[in-house]
Design goal:
Elements (H helix, E strand, L loop, with lengths): L1 H7 L6 H12 L5 E2 L11 H12 L12 H15 L8 E4 L2 H12 L5 E6 L4 H8 L3 E6 L9 H7 L4 E7 L11 H14 L2 E5 L15 H4 L7 E6 L12 E4 L2 H12 L7 H13 L3 H21 L15 E5 L1 H6 L9 H12 L1 E2 L1 E2 L8 E5 L4 H24 L1
Parallel strand pairs: 1-10, 3-4, 3-5, 5-6, 6-7
Antiparallel strand pairs: 2-8, 7-8, 9-12, 11-12
Helix pairs in contact: 2-14, 3-11, 4-11, 5-6, 5-10, 12-15, 14-15
């Protein structure tokens, strides 16, 4: 059974793109990676100092399987300030990145035969982990240009087997940010059908539409007892490789995660735990604000360039740090005998002709999308986007010449 489940899993989001980029780089080509799901910047000094101090102090022992108590307390305090909802260390689990938190959640609440509603386009880890738990992903399409799901479509997907809804706002890959009304409606629906909410809020620091991030437990406090709120330090502190995440949940989920993690990772990396604990104890938030400002400028400059695209709408990019292009009109307009028929073809052409890495929407269950990160270094991002615009507009010229 496990072997069958494994055969159904998708690969890493950027694995294929990065492998192609490696091949091109090995051939001596200069590659600009806009496929990466991370901001390319050094982590804050406080995080590095905390890690160095822990190493120098000889820290090397196991921690509680769900994390250091002082760190869990600090995360609870941080989360309470961000959501306006009180949390204690008893609600917090420290994980080896958000992926472990999501997997803990799936194993804690799902049984074989259960169904989980997932909004598509989606991060492929969501359906993959649902399958690992023996359950079935049920997709609800969130359509361009807002990529926000319709409540009537979610309701229509509910069956007697539905156990949970996974939400991800700000969204990877689309950059959609769900407003308060949408979150309240999803919360009402979950309460009415007694469903769990798994809320991936890993991009909560990256909202660019003039609002601040709104957690579902803030918009709908009544759903808190049925919510597993997953987050990580990976994005907001630029430490994706350190693998340190967390989730907040009711006591029974925390208890289940404690057992599960004791038999999987034992605990999240102890040096990373001490590094983040130190950061939380001394930070004034300046690193996070400076990163946000860098991304605000990158987004504005990028949108200005992307507005020059022909037959491709300028993306909204309200949150996360991705430009998600809707290529449907461009693809439809190309001749039937064109060598470019899919976004996979476009991603391949971008790499081959411009040296720019991207992620085709098929990775996210959307044949019409193309994801570009604006977390790349600014001196590389703008030239890369210029190349993207020129190449995509050249497809229009090729069409006209056909």
């Amino acid at each position: 059974m496990l072997a069958k489940r494994m055969s159904l899993l998708s690969g890493s989001v950027t694995a294929a793109a990065r492998e192609a980029a490696k091949v091109a780089a090995a051939a001596g080509r200069e590659i600009i990676d806009l496929a990466a799901g991370e901001v390319i910047i050094a982590p804050p000094r406080s995080v590095r100092d905390g890690a160095i101090a822990a190493i120098e102090d000889g820290v090397n022992r196991y921690t509680d399987s769900i994390g250091l108590a002082p760190l869990r307390t600090a995360v609870a305090k941080k989360l309470a300030a961000e959501t306006g909802v009180p949390w204690t260390m008893d609600n917090i689990v420290i994980t080896a990145g958000a992926k472990q938190g999501l997997l803990d959640a799936a194993f804690a609440i799902l049984d074989p035969g259960d169904e989980v509603i997932i909004f598509r386009p989606c991060w492929p880890t969501f359906p993959s982990q649902v399958l690992l738990a023996g359950a079935t992903p049920v997709f609800v399409d969130a359509r361009a240009p807002t990529y926000t799901p319709e409540i009537k479509d979610i309701r229509a997907a509910v069956t007697p087997r539905t156990k949970a809804i996974i939400i991800n706002s700000p969204n990877n890959p689309t950059g959609a940010v769900y407003n308060r009304a949408t979150l309240q409606a999803i919360g009402d629906l979950a309460n009415n059908y007694e469903l769990w909410i798994i809320s991936d809020e890993c991009y909560s620091n990256f909202v660019f539409n003039g609002d601040s991030h709104q957690s579902i437990v803030t918009a709908h406090p009544g759903i808190r007892s049925r919510t597993i709120l997953v987050n990580a330090f990976s994005k907001e502190l630029a430490i994706t490789g350190w693998r340190l995440g967390y989730f907040a949940a009711p006591a029974e989920i925390v208890s289940a995660a404690k057992k599960l993690q004791s038999h999987t990772t034992s605990n999240a990396n102890v040096i990373a735990q001490h590094a983040i604990l130190h950061h939380l104890s001394v930070t004034d938030g300046s690193f996070e604000r400076e990163m946000h400002q860098r991304l605000v400028k990158a987004r504005a400059d990028g949108l200005s360039l992307l507005s020059k695209l022909e037959n491709v709408p300028t993306p909204r990019a309200d949150g996360a740090f991705f430009f998600y292009l809707d290529m449907s009109a461009l693809l439809t307009s190309l001749p039937s005998d064109s060598a470019v028929r899919t976004t996979d073809d476009i991603a391949r052409l971008l790499l081959e002709e411009t040296g720019v890495g991207s992620v085709a929407g098929g990775t996210f269950g959307d044949p019409n999308g193309l994801r570009l990160s604006f977390g790349a270094p600014p001196d590389l991002l703008i030239p890369a986007l210029g190349k993207v615009v020129n190449m995509l507009n050249s497809l229009n010229a090729r069409r006209a010449a056909a």
